[in-house]
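Lab meeting notes turned into a lecture example. A postdoc, R.K., suggested we walk through two folding results consecutively so the class can see how the record format repeats. The first protein's sequence and structure tokens come next.
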Amino acid sequence: MILNRYNLTFLGLLFIHIVLLLFIIDDFSISYKEAQIYFTDISSLSFAELFSNSIILTFLTNLSTSILGQNDIALRVPFMLFYIGSSILLYLLTDDYFKSKWDRVISIAIFMMLPGVNSAALLVSESIVVVFFTLFYLYLYKLREKEHYYLLVLFLFIDNSFAILFLALFFYSLKKKDNMLLFTSLLLFGLSMSIYGFEIGGKPKGYFLDTIAVYATIFSPLLFLYFFYSLYRIGLKWEKDLYWYIAMTALFLSLLFSLRQKIDIEDFAPFVVIAIPIMVKLFMHSIRVRLKEFRQKHYAVATIVLSILLINFTIFIFNKYLFLFLENPSKHFAYKYYVAKELAYKLKENNINDIIVSDHKMKKRLKFYNINTTNSQYLLTTNLKINGKQLDITYKEKIVKSYKVKKQ
């Protein structure tokens, strides 16, 4: 990578973002779902259970903590590395995608600020792993202008959501009239369905608006509206590239399934967010085909959309401060990623390393911080009327949660 002003800007943005993400990691605790994944005993699983989506996450988190120690940074570092790799790959992929080099920088900056991407970079989730491998496949395809079928076979065993990529490649092969890609993608899609199926749940009723709301959260509301419009507009009038086929397949299927069932958005969102360059390219084209005096409306729209995205990004980075303004701290959108670590530290400060915990979720979370939860003379409870030592979990002098420790 040549160190020109565009590449230096990208590297600077990436460095600042990594520092901010590390700042958040220091605040987060392991969630119950993450603890379940981390403590999964792979050796005890049956052959069929080894195809569970979370196995790769169990392997990554245990490998990382075995090297860096059992702490929150080690737990989340693998996903930060996948995020860094994804950002670099997306930047490399778009080196000749735009007319202006600054369009490329704007595109990657938007990708970095997406709330969904930031969440995926920190949490124990398949999403950023799927984003990375999809971009890696696209990058190799760009370099050599040929399919890498061995990668597609590997994807089959990484995650069930790659079924969407296989289906997108099937539609793309129809356009290219590539019989080999058509056969391979259709075969892999069928195998993925037979191995994993597809996770949908809930009572048969419409979840369409719920899905739209989640996408609006992942992108930020106005940005998603324009992104949706971009895919629609390109589908009608522009040349459709592989980015479009992947994003459109994922978006269409998620909305279609949500008409009747609740979907796991993590299966679809990774394939949608990689198409951010499509949106930026269309918007920049819309500006440049107009005379300067007719561009003000576009600039105003861009300012509003990006301002809201920046506000959402800022809220995400400094989300811990939201506790100061919430009457009920449990209403915080990231509450399930707080309290456990601070509670473990409070217990250790009081020389308590072994305690009975009635809340099974908290019990699992405390285990990560080496708090044993059996054969103890202590009881952890939220009944504050009993006699015992009170432990207050506070953020910026705001009590978020209170516990009592009592001898049996």
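The second example is placed directly after the first for contrast:
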Amino acid sequence: MVKRLFDLSVAGAGLLAAAPVMLLLACWIKLDSRGPVLYRGRRAARGGGSFAMLKFRSMVTGADRVGGPTTAGDDPRVTRSGRFARRLKLDELPQLINVLRGEMSLVGPRPEVVDKVQRYSAEELRVMTLRPGITDWASIWNSDEGGVLAGAADADAAYEAVIRPWKIRLQQRYVDGCSLRTDLRILACTVLRVAGKRVSPPELADCPTFEELRRQVLALPEQTATRLAA
């Protein structure tokens, strides 16, 4: 109950404060490329089912028909306004509406596409006992996923091989230790990350760095990428 009240108050205040920026960004998106301002992606909901996760559209219309769900930093489907929004995480602001609706929380495991969740193991499904969140430990650890995957022969396969195992581990770590105090720490670290500051909370001490992830992605054999994507 305390977490839900916290989510409602912060999400409501956040929408009011961010309204001018959201309006300007919406205008730029509309002028930059054809298509809707908002992207509605189906994501797995807590306990089963799905919901429409809202984001400012950062890719060309129909991007899902010409590529996979994972986006590398050099993905040509990303628009000019989209690159700017992604760099500052402004594309995530509409998810405050999801929080008000009760579909998401400010802090929780990042929403995943439904078909990937259907392949989760019983242990991995523990992360679905909580509302998905706008940010979590994994978001802070790998705040530049597109940069990590840039140049990958197959971004989806590289994500599955290099990023997903650590992402799930950190989400399970949050499930085991979630509290309002932890949420406040994650939110503070997220703000610092977006501002370009380096943060090193102890919860991420055992995680590979950006440079280490890049080396793993670029060293991934092409035949392995093909096998993982199959």
